[in-house]
Design goal:
The chain has six helices and no strands. It has 166 residues and is mainly α. 8% of the residues are buried.
């Protein structure tokens, strides 16, 4: 294959968008918006159950599933808020009114998550980091390696009469 054709093929491959199959897309939408179980959604979309399970292992299908769930969650928030307000006003017990008021006030959620999706970030905390040598890169003319100052200077003149193993 000539170089120009190879380069064109690479460009086409890079520009290629990953497209969900219509059956997988339908099955995902049935699961999210209709509340179907995975096997039921697969059969309704014309897929084998194992095919949908394997399709959901692919990143682009899983991303579409998560996107649909976020759309559903976001569209349900106004109704949930309205229901909580109704519970504050019309609940039969004071306990339910209190819990609804607490939710609306944000007292039962972390302060950074009130009214928003909470994001948890974990930095790799399993790696032991041990200190090493510190090198001073400042422009003055001091010794650069700090641990050398702590040891006695044993110059070669002091070691002149030391016997060798030979």
């Amino acid at each position: 294959m000539p170089a120009a054709q190879k380069a064109a093929a690479i460009v086409r491959k890079q520009k290629k968008e990953i497209v969900l199959s219509p059956k997988a897309k339908l099955a995902i939408e049935l699961m999210v918006y209709e509340g179907m179980k995975r096997d039921e959604a697969a059969l309704a979309a014309g897929l084998a159950a194992i095919s949908l399970r394997q399709a959901l292992l692919k990143p682009h299908n899983l991303a579409y599933l998560n996107e649909c769930m976020e759309v559903l969650r976001t569209s349900g928030r106004p109704r949930a808020l309205r229901k909580m307000i109704e519970l504050v006003d019309d609940a039969k017990t004071e306990r339910i009114q209190f819990e609804a008021a607490k939710y609306l006030d944000g007292m039962d959620r972390p302060s950074h998550a009130v009214g928003a999706t909470q994001v948890n970030v974990q930095v790799n905390n399993t790696v032991n980091v041990t200190p090493g040598y510190a090198i001073d890169l400042r422009p003055d003319n001091r010794d650069q390696i700090g641990h050398l100052e702590q040891h006695d200077d044993k110059s070669l003149e002091l070691q002149v009469n030391v016997p060798t193993d030979e």
